[in-house]
Backbone:
């Protein structure tokens, strides 16, 4: 039994294990936080999803009159993919910092490395969602602005409600639920504190989505007036 426990402690957390046995992966993460290879896998998934999504966005119609519009549109899509990689890394770094602060406020014990590992592994679920959305949109006639796995694909609405409905996404909620469990097991805070923090983060994301939707609606109205 002691040998078995020692072997378990020596095992690294697995990305695929986040789908089948997340609690076990968090236990391993507490003993051995890893992130380099998982981060690479997460970024690859994000890139593939972003590539297929951007491929369905028609920019040439918006660039009429611009010399070499097709080449410029292709370059813009490439910039979008690179920006997606950088954005994913920044999002994970910021998420890790937020998780670290939550644990400190909740009087748990952890460090930034453990929280960065937690952020990478939970972001894997969101990256898988991005991949699925990108592939579904690429091989169908669905609006690229619609999040296939969210309420925005079920309920037709204009902005800002359309963006808000996109936050109610299966993979986003799944990822946040894993964050709550991870904050308990890796950060050592209480269940109440972990779930309260996650609910607050979700509410903030809804408010941000509402603001983005309003801004999008505003700029579209200006373009229509012009």
Residues:
């Amino acid at each position: 039994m002691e040998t078995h426990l020692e072997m378990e402690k020596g095992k690294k957390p697995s990305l695929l294990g986040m789908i089948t046995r997340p609690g076990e992966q968090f236990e391993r993460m507490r003993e051995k936080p890893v992130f380099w290879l998982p981060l690479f896998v997460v970024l690859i998934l994000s890139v593939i999803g972003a590539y297929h999504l951007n491929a369905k966005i028609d920019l040439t119609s918006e660039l009429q009159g611009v010399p070499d519009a097709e080449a410029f549109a292709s370059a813009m899509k490439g910039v979008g993919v690179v920006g997606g990689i950088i954005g994913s890394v920044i999002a994970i770094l910021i998420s890790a910092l937020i998780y670290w602060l939550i644990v400190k406020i909740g009087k748990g014990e952890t460090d930034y490395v453990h929280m960065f590992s937690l952020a990478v592994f939970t972001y894997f679920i969101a990256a898988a969602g991005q991949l699925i959305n990108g592939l579904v949109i690429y091989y169908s006639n669905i609006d690229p602005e619609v999040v296939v796995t969210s309420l925005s694909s079920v309920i037709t609405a204009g902005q800002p409600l359309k963006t808000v409905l996109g936050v109610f996404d299966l993979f986003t909620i799944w990822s946040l639920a894993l964050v709550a469990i991870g904050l308990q097991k890796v950060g050592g805070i209480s269940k109440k504190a972990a779930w309260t923090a996650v609910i607050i983060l979700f509410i903030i994301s809804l408010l941000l989505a509402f603001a983005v939707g309003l801004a999008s609606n505003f700029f579209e109205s200006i373009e229509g007036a012009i």
Q: What stands out?
A: The two ends are 74 Å apart (CA to CA). Residues 69-105 form the longest helix (37 residues). Residues 2-225 form one domain.
